[in-house]
Design brief:
There is one protein chain. By secondary structure, the chain is mostly helical. The chain contains four helices and no strands. Helix content is about 70%, strand content about 0%.
Length: about 120
Amino acid sequence: MDIGNLWNTGSIGGMADMAGNAARNTTAARLEEQLKTGYGNASDEELMDACKQFEAYFLEQMFKAMQKTVPNYSSEGMSGASSNMMDYYKEQMIQQVAADTTEQGSLGLAQMLYEQMKRTMI
């Protein structure tokens, strides 16, 4: 295995890409598992937690799509490893901002989803 390719900028097999994919897959898998097990017997807290997780995931994807529209001048002239680490920390920051926004309830998507699910579960 050529480990030099792990740090190449734009490489699909890059370390930051692998870490980002693992984080996305973990989040998506956790949400999917909760949906599969059903919320018919779930407490209100568990249902609201799932709604907040969905809202955070939705915001994260929206922030990432918004970020793609902005040119990335900050990584010009950096080595592949530095650039990939910067991308990794940007992704971590986006996840945290999405989680914080959800906890503040400023968007309100989780609350609307929770209310709708409660109505349909009765």
